Amino acid sequence: MIPTEFGIIDKIDKNRKYIIYEPEKYNCVTIDDDMYIDDWWEELCKMKTYVGGDLDKPSVALDRDGVTLIPPESLSIFETIVSNDPRIKQDYSLMELLKLIRKAKQENKYIIHFGV
After folding, report:
1. For residue 24, what are the contacts with CB-CB under 8 A and spacing of at least 6?
2. Do the Cβ atoms of 57 and 51 come closer than 8 Å?
3. Distance (Å, rounded) from C-alpha 16 to C-alpha 94?
4. Which of 28, 43, 65, 73 could form a disulfide with 5 if both were Cys (CB 3.0 to 4.6 A apart)?
5. In this predicted model, what pLDDT tens digit does every residue of 83-97 receive, in sequence order?
6. Which run of H or E residues covers position 34?
7. What angle do CA 21, 24, 25 make, to 5 degrees?
């Protein structure tokens, strides 16, 4: 398994660069990059993000080798991607990721992603 991790940023600091690997700080959920991200890639490319942990670097999809910030306005797309994956019925980590996305969406918060 190649882990990729997602967590919620409680309060985004628009002047900060989120480059330090701190999965415990964000209570990250881990999924298998190889198992899911390739399958989701086409849909992930429709999702506005920020790469390098920097809000001055707009992009799309995920930086698979670094830090990505997913803004609240992209969470509906991400929620649809995860919830439509049929493997969610058997994979506890996907269920946890969906809960995390819905919580961030409800609270209008950014998600941080740590790539491999």
Report:
1. none
2. yes
3. 29
4. 28
5. 999 999 999 999 999
6. helix 33-44
7. 80
Distance CA 27, CA 111 (A): 11
Cα–Cα distances in angstroms (integers) from residue 46 to residues 12, 18, 28, 81, 116, in the given order:
22, 22, 23, 11, 21
pLDDT digits (tens, 9 = 90+) for 29-74: 999 999 999 999 999 999 999 999 999 999 999 999 999 999 999 9
List Cβ neighbours of 116 (8 Å cut-off, separation of 6 or more).
2, 3, 4, 33, 64, 65
Confidence (pTM)? 0.95
Cβ atoms of residues 13 and 99 within 8 Å = no
Q: Tell me the one-letter amino acid at 106.
A: Q
Q: Are 75 and 61 spatial neighbours (Cβ–Cβ below 8 Å)?
A: no
Question: Percent helix, strand, coil in the chain (nearest 5)?
Answer: 40, 25, 40
